[in-house]
Specification:
Radius of gyration: 17 Å
Bound molecules: 2-hydroxyethylsulfonic acid
Structural class: alpha/beta
CATH topology: Rossmann fold
Oligomer: single chain
Shape: globular
Distance between the termini: 44 Å
CATH superfamily: NAD(P)-binding Rossmann-like Domain
Helix content: 40-55%
Number of strands: 9
Number of helices: 8
Order of helices and strands: EHEHEHEHEHEHHHEEE
Largest sheet: 7 strands, parallel
CATH architecture: 3-Layer(aba) Sandwich
Strand content: 15-25%
């Protein structure tokens, strides 16, 4: 049976991806910090749950043991944004945390699981980046810097693995309305979080992005999708967001 491991599987895009891959026949290892959430998900999709903090070397080294010798697909989805302060007054602890999760955590998990991906003879690494890894925007500093890091690490890994049967993909979503992304970014301020999506006709939802990841994983093993930018119709670019009805 083909196996997939998804980090950040406790909610949002990670959770939806675990479901989508399981529906496509993968045996899915659901990885996140919140044990109760991933245990429920794993039970629902007949997968496995492993509690893990990608920022902790000890926690991640236990992953390899739990996965065993072989892994077909790794989806690095653990990530997120904290704050929206200008560079001048940004909280560097937030920046540190964003870099730790979005870049170093992803690298740490990938390093640990590359031997198992290699052993499958057809490994695929999917890194969930962001449109924030393509442009700068005011107040985005720490997050855009981290997601640019995610993008460049993905590109570098693809170059370094050239000649091996391992595919490396970045999925870069724009505005996705998930239950937690903006809520976490704004420290639990629900009004601020909801204002992000106010009057936007149909932002992406987690299953939209999960479907893209499922598709990438379904392609023949010689086909590498390098990067895939996915946005809602309402968001033509980072600074070009239509608020108001579109679809009637
Ligand atoms: C999320 C996209 O617009 O919040 O990764 O930077 S944005």
């Amino acid at each position: 049976m083909t196996t997939a491991l998804v980090t950040g599987a406790s909610s949002g895009i990670g959770e939806a991806t675990a479901r989508a891959l399981a529906a496509d026949g993968f045996s899915v290892v659901c990885v996140a910090r919140r044990a109760d959430r991933i245990a429920a998900l794993a039970e629902e999709i007949d997968g496995t749950a492993i509690t893990c903090d990608v920022t902790s070397p000890d926690s991640v080294s236990a992953l390899a043991e739990a996965v065993g010798g072989r892994l077909d697909v790794l989806v690095n989805c653990a990530g997120g944004a904290l704050g929206s302060d200008p560079v001048e007054s940004a909280d560097l602890a937030d920046w540190q945390q964003m870099y730790d999760v979005n870049v170093l955590g992803l690298v740490r998990v990938t390093q640990t699981l590359l031997p198992a991906l290699r052993a499958s003879g057809q490994g695929l690494v999917v890194n969930v980046g962001s449109t924030a890894g393509r442009v700068a925007y005011e107040g985005g500093g720490g997050y855009t810097a981290a997601k640019h890091g995610t993008r460049v690490v993905t590109q570098t890994l693809r170059l370094e693995l050239n000649g091996e049967p391992i595919r490396v993909t970045e999925i870069a979503p724009g505005m996705v309305h998930t239950e937690e992304f903006s809520l976490v970014r704004f420290g639990g301020d629900r009004d601020r979080a909801e204002a992000v999506y106010a009057d936007v006709d149909s932002p992406l939802v987690a299953t939209d992005v999960a479907e893209a990841i499922r598709w990438v994983a379904s392609l023949p093993r010689h086909v590498n999708i390098d990067e895939l930018v996915i946005r809602p119709v309402a968001q033509a670019a980072q600074h070009k967001l239509h608020r108001g009805p579109i679809f009637g």
